[in-house]
């Protein structure tokens, strides 16, 4: 167990965490390590080892692991407990189909109410994405960009659902960039989307968004088909 704690310490850090902050800190440390690949798929994530590492009880660790499981980053495996989920799975294509439905509706609701400051914020995220190569930061900026365009949608539950899907998207972006041999994403789709939103061209913006998301779905489908045939 000491060796496992040592390995976890190298990945997650080992400073003691105040009890009232433990759940959030542990969740964020694990989430970052999973998204950027320091904890690869299949890695066992055990409650007691984490509790020992951070000097807390198992309760906040259990809560953090539940949150990560809900985000699709961990899965519970018989006789192993929580493990880091596969980087890409069969349900990923379905997730993209769901995103097209949810995000198209949010965009329709939001665009008529977007102000110049919202558009400027979206463009600032694109500018940062142009110069970013770190997978975790690309994922964060991509999520913020999309949410900045949906922010004026009146259906708050819809926005919460989308935010959850975009959190899962952060991990796919690492797969996408690695699979395509790219250091960063092209911003052509994002620029076209923001231009359409700025001009209040709702139907054009929805069409651009749908094609943007469907590109991701096609990349996943090709990968899964290649895995099945190999």
From TrEMBL:
Protein's UniProt keywords contain Transcription regulation: yes
Domain of life: Bacteria
Protein's UniProt keywords contain Transcription: yes
Annotated HTH gntR-type domain residues: 20-87
Matches recorded under SMART domains: FCD, HTH_GNTR
Stretches of the chain forming a coiled coil according to its record: none
Pfam families the record matches: FCD, GntR
GO molecular-function terms, A-Z: DNA binding; DNA-binding transcription factor activity
Keywords: DNA-binding, Transcription, Transcription regulation
CDD domains found in the cross-reference section: WHTH_GntR
Record protein name field: GntR family transcriptional regulator
